[in-house]
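so im writing up the methods section and need the Malonyl-CoA decarboxylase family protein record in one place, dumping it here so i stop losing it
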Amino acid sequence: MTVTDVKKLPAPQPEAEAEKASEKETEGLIARLGRWLERDHLPLQTDVLSLFTARMTDVAANRKAKQWSQRYLAADAKERRALLAGLAQASAGLEPREDKGLRLFRRLYAQADSLHLLVELRADMLRWRNQVAGLTVLERELEGLLSSWFDVGMLELRPITWDSPASLLEKLIQYEAVHEIRSWDELRHRVASQRRCYAFFHPRMSDVPLIFVEIAFAAEMAGDVQMLLDPAVPAGDPSKARWAIFYSISNTQPGLRGISFGNFLLKRVIDQLLIELPKLKSFATLSPIPGFVDWLGKQDGKAIHELLHDKADRQKALDDPKAGQAWVERLQAAAAGKAGDAVRKSGLRLVAHYLKSMKNGQPLDPVARFHLGNGARIERINWAADSSPKGIAQSCGIMVNYLYELDQLDDNLALLAAGKPKTGMNLRWL
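--- predicted struct ---
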């Protein structure tokens, strides 16, 4: 073919080019749509059911469990909820149920080789259990399994100091749930040599702190958290202190909420403190009361009038259906200013009644549930102990000391089991 022949070839038609371009665009769209459908396609119900029912040695079911676990860990919230709904739907049809729920979780753990997967699963179950039918049953089964796997005897206790890795110190700032750490100076104060901070780790989640425990030392039982938190207040010499004050205990994993880690969690910390500081004699907390305002705001006058100190206040509250909310506002205002003796005594009485209140065999307040469940007793209630906005909003600024007497822990637990939380002499005068 000559050059002239080439020049005579007809030029490509614009219509043909447009058609080819359209075909390529359509092919690309179909390919993208195929990938989208593949990603959104949920596991078949028969496949999900096999995760519950197949033997633990079943190769096909284990392969599906591994794929399910990988997909779940990589999924966004919407897809996770859909995957959990599939589990709940399959779970609802199990007859007889027996231990099939536990078999599912053990299979997922074995195939994912990740305890963190199960912790995340429970966090999402707690988040959506009221929206996804049947999820509560699975959540309770998983809670029981995690409770046995996270017993305090299995956890490792490590000290946290200013020389600890920056990534760990950042986690302390991130997960502090009781008293916010607002600066590096505040952080340095909390992990200084005059203080102690410990973290609990699980051997299968060795890079994830589960609980932070922060401790100050004092000559007597502390009743003002501002004094403990203020970096400008000089800390005493721990070697001369007689009291160890637990002022912040933070659980870092939402998926472990409500799991006690076994009794005597703080006893492990106390045993460690006594090795380092053998002159310590007494161990107490200075604890928030996070459920008090919410509880009091729901009470009517008949429920609280006998707890009020002043006769006129009792008479006024008796027939008031919103007396509890009125007292919330009154106590919050008093905490921010000067409180009269009658208002202060009424506030302390209301708190004492709330802390001793039980439901389903457990204290109403979550922090009371933790400490009383570890064998402590309710020792003293402190007026205006936390003037922070959070402290005022949660408990009208009132805080409580729980006392840990090592030779009384078992007896206190027995009283708690009988529905009678142990209280100290200070509360008997309220």
